Amino acid sequence: MRVFIVGSLAGELGQAAQHALARGAAIEQADDPASALVRLRADARVDLVLCDVAFDIGAFVRALAQERIATPIVACGVGTDPATAARAIREGAREFLPLPPDPDLIAALLEAATAESHHLIARDPVMLATVRRAEQIADSEASVLIVGESGTGKEVLARHIHRRSRRANGPFVALNCAAIPETLLESELFGHEKGAFSGAIARRIGKFEAADGGTLLLDEISEMDVRLQAKLLRVIQEREINRLGSNTPIRVNVRILATTNRDLAGEVAAGNFREDLYFRLNVVSMRLPPLRERPGDIIALSEHFAHRYAEVNGLPYRPLTPAALELLTKHRWRGNVRELENTIHRAVLFADHETIGPEAIELQASLHEPPAPARDQPSDAGGISALVGRTMEEVERELILQTLSYTLGNRTHAATILGISIRALRNKLREYAAQGIKVPPPTAGVAASAVA
Asked: What confidence category does residue 16 fall into, taking pLDDT thresholds of 50, 70 and 90?
């Protein structure tokens, strides 16, 4: 992944850069937002911006928005002053990173931004068959549609296809269609010319040009607006783009991979997705099975995460006991690989012995299913009656924060559970931060950290 540092590398921000380098990130730097903006226009492959809070974060965010650059900004500042953090979030920063930086938080920010950890782990026959199918078509030029529940690892499989393809030495560029506002998505895809719209003070390339000679992953393609789908269809057919504000076509040599957690054929029937685009993307369709359908992967994934989070947290590796593994294999894992990762992360932190036993495994009931009522109490006990006297805002806030806690700060997973968009969730969290309410920091988006 590529991280852009805005500010001096001489102090604590330089330490953050060193931690990012240690996690495998490529680092670029500019002394101020104006210089950074020039560089960001020319490179659509920057995944994350770390900006010193001493600069005007709001003005920088507005400048990026005016030019339709959707790269997330993390404000960085010495100390943990809640007012400073809340102001930065209110001005449009995605998160606030206290300095001196904590290596674990740096790792979480990097993974949440780009799902940088993408080991593909497969042991179960069902998943092995899926991987074999992926490798059969990897070296072709066919577009691939990867379908699967949230948290199964669709981006991991897409990256695996790219690595096994003849384009492996070219760029792999991923664009999350659900995470970028509709008004910015077109420019993110195609780029724009100077003067294309108010605020476009210079040319900027888009993801298609950045992926030239490689692979472009359109993550959660079902979230793309129908109007933009028509333009995407033309690009796939003609293999050329027009930057916004230009009538000059630019040839692009890009292989398209797309993912969705929805029934795309159903979306076509409902009029939410273009049928012609569906068939263009669906040259090869791959279904990534949920974790409950590939139980043979649970042990391998659990051991992988136990090693990984021991290293991330500076702890000695402790193996999982047979009793703990039995507990894990019997769970339903409605959150799929992402839920399993969060569970093992907690276990690594809470284990008190030289091994990780069942006492360290915290399995939480699915938030999709109501808990069974206590035997000696009315079925309402602890339910609706506990909400009486509270406002809707209070109930909503508690539900959102508890869900975020359940997912260990994974906002994509929390949004999926809550049935809202990631943008709606972020807006709510910004409101809470502005009110001085503590919001859990983000953690890795682990749908992409491992596939079983």
From this structure: confident
